Amino acid sequence: MKKVERINIIMRYINNRARFTISEIMQEFNISRSTAIRDIREVEAMGMPLVAEVGRDGGYFVMHNSVLPEVRFTNHEVKALFIAFMATRNQQLPYLKSRQSLAEKLLGLISENQQDELVLLNQILLFEGTNPHNPDLLDLSDLPHPMLETLIQTLLVDSYLLITVKEESYPIYLLHLYREKSAWLIEGFDLQEEKKKIIPVDHLTDVKPYPPKKRVSKKKILEKLSKQEEAINLVLELGPKAIAQFKKYHPLKVSISYTNPYQTTALLKTFIHVDQPEELSEITNWVLFLGEDITVREMPEEVLKGLQGRLWGLTND
To answer: Cβ(292)–Cβ(298) under 8 Å?
Structure first.
C-alpha cells in the first residue's frame, strides 16, 4: 500500500473512532511504531484536530469526532491562487513540492468549467521568469538549491547558525534571507569576525544551530551593528522616469523617499563600498540603468570615474 493511500485510510479509521492508540494503528495497518507516529503527525498536519491523552494507557481522540470545516473558494479566489502559482514559477522558491500538491488539491476541488478557465489562463498569461515553451503549473524544473529548505527549517527554530561553505565552518546570527537577481542570499552577523556578511545559499554545504554556550546576545549584536553603520556617500534626486526604472530593479539595500505627494520626485541615499570592485561595477551599471532623469547631489569619485569611463566608451563606439 502506498503511503498516501495509507494516510487517507488511517484518517478515515481515526475519524470513525472515539479514541485510539498507537498500538492499535500498528496492529491494524501492520506498521512499525515510528511509522505509526509519523502517519499520525501527517494526519494532524492535514487538519484533523487530535488531542493526546497523557498516562500509561494514553492515546488519542478526535475533537468532536470530526475533521476541521471544509474551506470553500469563490471563483475569483480560485483564479487568484492559480495566478499566484503562475507568477512564482521558475523563481526557485522553497517548498515547491508542497506547492505542487496544493495545486493538485485545488484542481481536484473545482468544477470542470473552472478547470477549463484555468487552462485558458495558463495559455494566455505569461509572467517574467516563465518558460514559454513549458508553462506548466506543476512543473518542477525550478527547484531551488537543496540547502534552502533546510536553512529555512533551521532558522525558524533558531537564528544562531553554524554554516559550512565548502570545508570552512563559521557561526553567524541570521539577519535576513532574501532573493536578489535569481539568487538566494543570507545577510548575517559573523560572530567571529564581528561584522555583517552576505553569503550565497548556493555556496552552503551544511547548516545547523550554533551551540548556546558560545553565543553573543542579540542585544549586543544589534549594538555592534549600529556602531558599524556606514556613512552615506551617494545621494541622487530621481525624476519620474528614473523612479519608473528604480521600480523595475534596484539593489535590496537601496530605497527611495518621495519628495512630493504625487510621487513624481524622490531622493535616494545609500553607502557604496568603493574598495569592493564588484559592488562598484554593479552600482555603476545600475546608475546608468536609471537613465538621464537623475541629479547627482553626492557621489564617490570612484563611481563618477566609472560612469565617465563607460560613457566615454559608448561615445567612442
So the answer is: no
Burial 274-313 (b: 16+ CB within 10 A, else e): beeeeebeebbeebeebeeebeeeebbebbeebbeeeeee
Q: Which set of grid coordinates corresponds to residue 44?
A: 494532524
- Read off the pTM: 0.60
The closest of 282, 287, 293 to 311, measured between CA atoms, is 287
HSE-up of residue 138 (Cα within 13 Å, Cβ side) = 10
Average pLDDT on 257-282 reads 89
In this prediction, what percent of the chain has a pLDDT beyond 70? 89
Which residues, 6+ apart, have CB-to-CB distance to 11 below 8 Å?
43, 46, 48, 67
Across 89-93, 140-144, 301-305, least confident range: 140-144
Task: Give the C-alpha distances (Å, rounded to integers) separating 282 from 269, 274, 293.
Answer: 16, 11, 19
Confidence bin at 265 (pLDDT 50/70/90): very high
Contacts of 286 (CB under 8 A, 6+ apart): 249, 250, 251
Cα–Cα distance measured from residue 249 to residue 221, given in angstroms and rounded to the nearest whole number: 31
* CB of 182 closer than 8 Å to CB of 139: no
Burial class, 317, CB count within 10 angstroms (exposed 0-12 / middle 13-18 / buried 19+) = exposed
